[in-house]
């Protein structure tokens, strides 16, 4: 059910982005796209380059600020947002009132609503609401992850309850009261004048199989989510709210669902609390697409970003909910259903149109995200430049070696040989005690010659057999020995243990020795004193031996 | 003369991270000096023709940028470098200079010459002679003090065929001590000699124990951390020739040499001999620079006959290693890193120098692993540091506390680290350019967060270098693979020494025991004979 129709991009496989979580994912995928086209990629800290002037947030940890550089220009990026989006546009995007003003000006609708600060009492809000037509939506103005958003409030009593909950219990005093637009909500990504991706967010849900309970279906689904780069840190959480929501459908956590029966666990569509991203690009009418583009263009300097809108279920008219200049791309790249949309490609095309035709044959290549950021941790460095990868093609080969392949020295030898040939790849020990070596390089001949280097074996290792195979999977630049660090750590611990025991042994021996020296005189006279006692023992030992 | 410890220049003490130790010591210390004066520092990778990675760096003051490899800056031209790279060309330039520089007499041979040609020439020379390749590195293939034609006849094919050197030199052997002298422009900066691996007797410890002690000292010297004395066949043989054993206890102040060759990597020591340079020797060294165009700073290997105040140049090095001069085991350390930066950035000469240093390991990791091609180190403002060492006691080893300390320091732009101690206290090293901020930090630590009870703070001045930014001191398991490898090697070495000592002790113990057993059983044997009636 998970992948019933999900289609991800092979050049952004889960393995490639495995080091880039959450907001880091957006930065990494856009940076990677530019780097693969031969652009110069640098990672920065906030104090470096143009970043001090750029509007960014939560960038204490490196990995979200980068620049891409061609011969004649440099562009700076924060997550998925580049410097073609102005600071003013970012500010407007985060302010509902000014967004609304600009949109209305262009004849684009947003739900009607009003904002209330903490000075306004609940009673005053209720009085105001009596002038609105229900149903309505209540949301905190500064909330995130859909927390405290109450939709489809049908009457005054429900609103009163909602206000008490959001302003009282959750302590969000600043709230927005908005008309409720019934219909499907879309997140649409626009670059320039083009819609390049769209998705629905579907509230957390499970589908039955006639066998499992809701609880175990949730657990299973969370297992699936853990494999999705966008969703791995967004499991469905079983809490009171879920139980309450189930109970409105006469269901419990222990209920068993029929095969194919889909049950929603909440009304909220947020991915971060268990919602599903579903590709919806082909659902959109040209009119909706056009509205999304016009909405984005209504804000000066907002050249790319996400548009959240609801298509009214009766009038089919779009209502803009929000504009997001620094949008997450994960849902569009890793949908639970439908086709992934290559937003990073569109963004780089937009910034560096001259690289559009760069061959995609190197799209299996990526770089070690964590490692390249090491100098930026603790700000030892301002920026690091990723090794340039300006090649049209890359050749790969896999070798499988049998023999004495487990030694650390052997692994180091392989690594040095690969490096000397300028090859990338890895070596990995297989459970059948063979060693798998993958090498990749621009020069096909060098890649194939690696077999000769292995056979030549100038390190004099005990290798029995070298098999050769094709390899079409991903290549991380550099050369890595899988498990090398673990092995080193083990080695280290063993050496340390040996050292400790040697030290103890030494202490013991020294003590023993000095004891002996001290008691020597006494011991020399001992035989005389103990002769009778010893004779029996000696006799027994001797006769035993003679048997 | 004491060998109980290794002495730092104060601004280098503890400021050489593992990645800057050993072979990258010039690459780190010269760059550090520039960085400490507020220059922009960039490290970048360079791949040579064998695809080997070389770490290079540049320093910039915003207006001009200079590029460096090891101790050599861009003030040395490619032409000059190439001349120095070939010993024969070097000699030609020195011999034929306006003011000729003394070099050993001899002749170069290439693949066109037969071994017999070389031997024929040798017949015209006075022995002893030296036979060496023109472009060998680190003494590779060099045979000095060859006494006879027969000896030479064996060495020639070894160097030419087995080691594969095409161009070789046969020259006079000049007796004397080999000085390594460093020159910038028309100024001699200093000199050192290398002493073969040795130990100094104290009348109490065995040679074996002295080696161990010497190694412990070597491990504290950033230039020698992984260049320990390893007891091998060569050392055993050398001792045997002298009638010594590893268990011999040398007399007080007796220096026992363990090897012939003085390579630092084999356990040799660098000793500063700057004060031994006479004006004449200095002139010879300076004339080398005048003889080779484009060579603004360099090192020379000079054989010095101290008695007659004579010097002969064996080799010129465009990028001499500074490690032995900066971190000698004996004599005064010489700060050539400072000299190089003074030379390239004279305007920064009198600038205040910060005592901060940076995490070279973190900076190099992606470069070494070929993921990154350059790293721009964070630039600093060169100001003096005000530092404190704090020991917090009370109920202080509490999860989250170290992180809290780090946040306080970060908030005030302070540098240093926090570390839990085995005795239940917490150690904090803190430093910053703003004295008030440091004092406020100390007060804040004393107050602590709610969940920690600081009872007392032992506060001392801290006048040593501090790593930039504030960190929670790492445990060994956080080391990078390269650091780990080095650490493993060192531990293995120490362990081997210990194991050998143990074995020896056991052997001694056994010997003793058996001797005793024999004595003990002596009377018993008689009794036994009596009982069994056997003869």
What would your notes on this structure say?
- The complex is a heterodimer of chains A (547) and B (535).
- Chain A is an alpha+beta fold and 547 residues long.
- Chain A folds into five domains: 6-80 and 341-376, no CATH class; 112-180, ATP-grasp fold, A domain (Dna Ligase, domain 1); 184-332, D-amino Acid Aminotransferase, Chain A, domain 1 (2-Layer Sandwich), CATH 3.30.470.20; 395-482, Alpha-Beta Plaits (2-Layer Sandwich); 487-546, no CATH class.
- Chain A is built from 15 helices and 25 strands.
- In chain A, strand 10 (183-191) and strand 11 form a beta hairpin.
- The longest helix of chain A has 35 residues, at 484-518.
- Chain A is globular, with a radius of gyration of 33 Å.
- Chain B has 535 residues and is α+β, with helices and mostly antiparallel strands.
- Chain B folds into five domains: 10-71 and 352-377, no CATH class; 105-173, ATP-grasp fold, A domain (Dna Ligase, domain 1, 2-Layer Sandwich), CATH 3.30.1490.20; 197-267, no CATH class; 386-473, Alpha-Beta Plaits; 477-535.
- Chain B has 14 helices and 23 strands.
- Chain B has helices at 25-36, 78-85, 87-95, 115-123, 149-162, 207-218, 233-241, 279-291, 323-326, 336-344, 360-368, 401-411, 435-447, 481-532; strands spanning 40-47, 53-60, 65-69, 72-73, 106-109, 129-133, 143-146, 168-172, 177-184, 187-195, 198-200, 255-257, 269-272, 297-305, 310-317, 356-357, 372-377, 386-395, 415-420, 426-432, 453-461, 466-467, 470-472.
- In chain B, the strands form six sheets. A five-stranded antiparallel sheet of chain B has the order 4-3-2-1-17.
- In chain B, strand 19 (415-420) and strand 20 form a beta hairpin.
- Chain B is globular and about 90 Å long.
- Chains A and B meet through strand 19, helix 14 and helix 15 of A and strand 1, helix 11, strand 17 and helix 14 of B.
């Amino acid at each position: 059910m998970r992948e019933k129709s999900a289609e991800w991009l092979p050049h952004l496989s889960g393995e490639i982005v495995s080091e880039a979580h959450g907001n880091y994912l957006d930065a990494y995928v856009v940076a990677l796209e530019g780097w693969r086209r031969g652009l110069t990629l640098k990672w920065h800290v906030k104090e470096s380059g143009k970043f001090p002037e750029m509007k960014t947030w939560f960038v204490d940890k490196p990995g979200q600020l980068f620049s891409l550089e061609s011969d004649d220009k440099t562009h700076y990026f924060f997550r998925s947002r580049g410097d073609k989006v102005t600071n003013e546009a970012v500010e407007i995007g985060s302010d509902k009132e000014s967004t609304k003003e600009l949109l209305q000006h262009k004849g684009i609708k947003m739900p009607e609503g009003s904002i209330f600060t903490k000075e306004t009492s609940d009673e005053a809000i209720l009085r105001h609401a009596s002038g609105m037509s229900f149903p309505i939506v209540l949301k905190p103005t500064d909330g995130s992850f859909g927390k405290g958003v109450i939709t489809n409030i049908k009457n005054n009593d429900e609103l009163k309850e909602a206000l008490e909950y959001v302003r009282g219990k959750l302590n969000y005093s600043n709230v927005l009261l908005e008309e409720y637009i019934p219909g499907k909500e879309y997140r649409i990504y626009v670059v320039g004048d083009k819609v390049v991706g769209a998705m629905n967010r579907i509230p957390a849900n499970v589908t039955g199989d006639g066998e499992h309970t809701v609880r175990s279906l949730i657990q299973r689904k969370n297992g699936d989510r853990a494999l999705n780069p966008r969703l791995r840190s967004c499991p469905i959480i079983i809490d009171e709210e879920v139980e309450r929501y189930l109970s409105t459908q006469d269901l419990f956590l222990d209920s068993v669902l029929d095969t194919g029966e889909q049950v929603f666990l909440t009304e909220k569509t947020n991915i971060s609390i268990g919602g599903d991203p579903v590709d919806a690009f082909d659902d959109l009418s040209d009119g909706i697409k056009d509205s999304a583009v016009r909405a984005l263009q209504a804000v000066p300097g907002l050249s790319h970003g996400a548009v959240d809108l609801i298509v009214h279920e009766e009038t089919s008219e779009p209502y803009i909910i929000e504009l997001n200049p620094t949008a997450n791309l994960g849902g569009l790249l890793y949908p639970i259903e439908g086709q992934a949309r290559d937003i990073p490609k569109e963004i780089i095309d937009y910034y560096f149109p001259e690289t559009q035709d760069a061959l995609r044959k190197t799209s299996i290549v990526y770089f070690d995200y964590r490692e390249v950021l090491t100098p930026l941790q603790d700000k030892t460095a301002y920026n690091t430049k990723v090794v340039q990868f300006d090649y049209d093609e890359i050749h790969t080969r896999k070798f499988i070696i049998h023999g004495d392949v487990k030694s650390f020295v052997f692994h180091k030898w392989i690594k040095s040989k690969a490096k000397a040939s300028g090859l990338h790849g890895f070596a990995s020990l297989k459970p059948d005690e063979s060693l798998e070596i993958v090498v990749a390089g621009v020069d096909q001949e060098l890649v194939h010659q690696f077999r000769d280097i292995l056979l030549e074996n100038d390190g004099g290792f005990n290798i029995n057999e070298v098999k050769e195979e094709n390899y079409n999977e991903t290549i991380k630049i550099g050369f890595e020995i899988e498990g090398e660090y673990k092995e080193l750590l083990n080695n280290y611990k063993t050496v340390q243990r040996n050292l400790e025991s040697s030290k103890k042994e030494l202490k013991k021996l020294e003590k023993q020795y000095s004891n002996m020296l001290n008691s020597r005189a006494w011991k020399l006279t001992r035989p005389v004193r103990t002769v009778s006692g010893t004779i029996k023992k000696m006799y027994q030992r001797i006769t035993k031996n003679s048997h | 003369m004491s060998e109980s410890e290794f002495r730092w220049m104060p601004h280098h003490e503890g400021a050489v991270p593992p990645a800057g130790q050993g072979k990258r010591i010039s690459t780190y210390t010269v760059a550090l000096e520039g960085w400490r004066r507020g220059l922009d520092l960039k490290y970048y990778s360079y791949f040579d023709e064998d695809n080997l990675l070389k770490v290079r760096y540049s320093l910039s003051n915003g207006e001009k940028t200079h590029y460096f490899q090891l101790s050599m800056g861009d003030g040395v031209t490619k032409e000059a470098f190439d001349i120095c790279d070939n010993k024969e060309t070097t000699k030609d330039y020195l011999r034929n200079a306006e003011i000729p520089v003394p070099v050993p007499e001899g002749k170069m041979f290439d693949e066109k010459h037969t071994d017999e040609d070389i031997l024929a020439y040798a017949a015209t020379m006075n022995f002893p002679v030296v036979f060496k390749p023109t472009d060998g590195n680190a003494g590779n293939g060099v045979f000095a003090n060859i006494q006879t034609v027969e000896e030479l006849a064996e060495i020639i094919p070894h160097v030419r065929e087995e080691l594969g050197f095409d161009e070789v030199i046969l020259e006079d052997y000049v007796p004397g001590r080999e000085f390594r002298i460093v020159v910038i422009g028309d100024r001699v900066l200093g000199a050192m000699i290398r002493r073969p691996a040795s130990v100094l007797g104290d009348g109490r410890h065995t040679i074996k124990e002295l080696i161990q002690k010497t190694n412990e000292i070597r491990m504290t010297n950033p230039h020698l951390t992984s260049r320990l004395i390893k007891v091998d066949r060569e050392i055993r043989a050398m001792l045997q020739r002298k009638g010594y054993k590893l268990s011999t206890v040398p007399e007080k102040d007796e220096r026992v040499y363990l090897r012939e060759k003085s390579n630092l990597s084999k356990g040799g020591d660098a000793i500063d001999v700057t004060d031994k340079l006479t004006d004449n020797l200095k002139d010879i060294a300076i004339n080398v620079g005048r003889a080779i165009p484009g060579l603004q700073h360099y090192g020379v290997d000079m054989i010095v006959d101290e008695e007659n105040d004579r010097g002969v140049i064996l080799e010129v090095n465009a990028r001499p290693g500074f490690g032995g001069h900066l971190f000698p085991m004996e004599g005064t350390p010489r700060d050539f890193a400072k000299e190089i930066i003074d030379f390239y950035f004279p305007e920064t000469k009198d600038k205040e120098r910060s005592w901060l240093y940076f995490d070279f390991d973190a900076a190099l990791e992606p470069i070494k692993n070929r993921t990154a091609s350059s790293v721009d180190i964070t630039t600093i403002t060169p100001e003096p540091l005000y530092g404190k060492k704090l020991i917090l006691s009370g109920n202080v080893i509490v999860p989250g506390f170290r992180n809290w300390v780090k946040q306080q320091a970060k908030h005030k732009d302070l540098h240093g680290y926090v570390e839990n101690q085995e005795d239940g206290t917490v150690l904090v090293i803190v430093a910053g350019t703003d004295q008030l901020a440091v004092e406020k930090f100390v007060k804040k630590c004393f107050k602590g967060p709610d969940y920690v009870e600081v009872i007392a703070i032992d506060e001392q001045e801290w006048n040593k270098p501090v790593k930039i930014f504030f960190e929670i001191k790492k445990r060994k398991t956080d080391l990078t693979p390269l650091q780990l490898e080095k650490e493993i090697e060192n531990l293995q070495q120490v362990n081997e020494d210990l194991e050998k000592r143990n074995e020896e002790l056991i052997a001694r113990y056994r010997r003793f025991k058996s001797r005793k057993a024999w004595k003990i059983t002596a009377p018993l044997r008689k009794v036994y004979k009596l009982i069994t009636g056997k003869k």
